[in-house]
Design brief:
With 381 residues, the protein is of the alpha/beta class. It has twelve helices and 17 strands. 38% of the residues lie in helices and 16% in strands. It binds pyridoxal-5'-phosphate (PLP).
């Protein structure tokens, strides 16, 4: 049987780091970051207007193949805006997965909605099409007012699947089911920049996709986000709402609805542009690490989370599945005590105090994964 310390030693060899702390995911600033940020400072355009914001949006369109990109202050703001624009409001319900970072559920609440948690697939760690179909056919009815949850009598306004750790879920099937039930699909692609499903970039399958550029992500600008959409009206609305809903005018202050100060500052966009230039190299580097991990863990008979054959993951965070909770906990303790940073997958959203009363539908796989999954160091080396 492989000991925890054998895994720790392997990770140290993979990172060529015999001692010291190996973080879970450290950013890498090896390109034009300094140059562009200084340029933004010299331009005096440091806030939400500036050439780098425009350039960042063009680069995101190019990378994702989506029609329009709207830069935001972070991924949570991108999700919040996307949900509001999709029509989620007070009293609505939004289907999502319990296995996600808390921001997904928080954004639903921020828009006035209540999350409903359905199960994930064991292989993708993302929303299960079978669970979605089962929930909708069992608990909901298609009516003239939209899809209504028969248990609560509320409208199911949107569905937010999340591509966990950058591993694409079965998004084409999820999209088909959402269309069948008239539910808006918004992808939480916060973790999946550079991940593709059947050749199409994650975040481009539904009405909108939300991305994050937080310090722990594959590409970062300290804090930042983006909405991707192929709909020009939605793009216009997102840009408008993210800039305090101000009606463009050279000097007048006129705002036609309650807006948000959600636009990415030029200073952050400068860094984001420099980071995006390096995305192909980052992805190649991360895939090499994934190959090392896959080889090692398959020889040791330890379950390593991997991309589906039809998908291309960005391998943002590599993940292991232990046989049971006690093995998981012993590995977490030994690796962290020895300077190799590892983290358990999130506590399920329906177990957090603020979401404990939300509907949770047969979370068998999510429960199983919660007990077993651990992230291991995954930085670009
Ligand atoms: C799944 C998921 N959704 C949303 C977010 C929110 O992004 P941000 O931290 O940029 O607000 C993150 C990351 O932080 C995330 O991992």
């Amino acid at each position: 049987m492989t000991t925890n310390m054998e895994i720790v030693s392997f990770i140290r060899r993979a990172f060529l780091q015999p001692d010291g702390l190996i973080p879970l995911h450290a950013p890498k600033f090896s390109g034009n970051e300094r140059k562009y940020v200084l340029d933004a400072i010299d331009s005096t355009f440091v806030s939400s207007v500036g050439a780098y914001v425009t350039r960042f949006e063009a680069m995101m369109v190019e990378i994702t193949g989506g029609g329009y990109a709207i830069a935001t202050v972070n991924g949570t703001a991108a999700l919040h805006l996307a949900l509001m624009i999709a029509g989620v409001s007070e009293g609505d319900e939004v289907i999502t997965q319990p296995l996600t970072f808390v921001a997904t559920a928080n954004a639903v609440r921020m828009a006035g909605g209540t999350p409903i948690f359905i199960d994930v697939d064991k292989d993708t760690l993302g929303m299960s099409p079978a669970s979605l179909e089962d929930f909708l056919s069992t608990c909901c009815a298609n009516t003239a007012e939209g899809c209504i949850n028969k248990t609560t009598g509320k409208r199911v306004a949107a569905c937010v699947p999340m591509h966990t750790f950058g591993f694409p879920l079965r998004i084409d099937q999820i999209s088909g089911i959402c269309q069948q039930y008239g539910i808006a699909l918004i992808e939480d692609a916060a973790e999946s920049l550079g991940s593709f499903y059947k050749g199409q970039h994650t975040g481009t399958f539904g009405l909108m996709g939300a991305f994050s550029f937080n310090g722990n992500k594959t590409v970062t600008c300290g804090g930042g986000g983006a909405i991707i959409t192929s709909d020009d009206q939605i793009a216009r609305k997102a840009r408008h709402l993210s800039t305090t809903a101000k009606i463009p005018h050279v000097w007048e202050y006129d705002h036609d609805e309650i807006g948000y100060n959600y636009r990415m500052p030029n200073l952050n966009a400068a860094m984001a542009c420099a980071q995006l230039e390096q995305l192909p190299a980052f992805l190649e580097n991360k895939r090499k690490l994934a190959n090392l991990y896959r080889d090692f863990f398959s020889k040791k008979n330890i379950s390593y989370v991997d991309e589906l054959p039809e998908a291309k993951a960005n391998y943002w965070l590599n993940a292991l599945m232990f046989d049971d909770q006690s093995q998981k906990e012993s590995f977490l303790a030994d690796s962290n005590a020895n300077g190799v940073m590892t983290r358990p997958i999130w506590k399920l959203m329906n177990k957090l105090g603020m979401y404990k009363d939300c509907q949770a539908y047969n979370l068998v796989n999510a429960e199983w994964l919660e007990q077993r999954v651990v992230n291991i160091p995954s930085s670009v080396r």
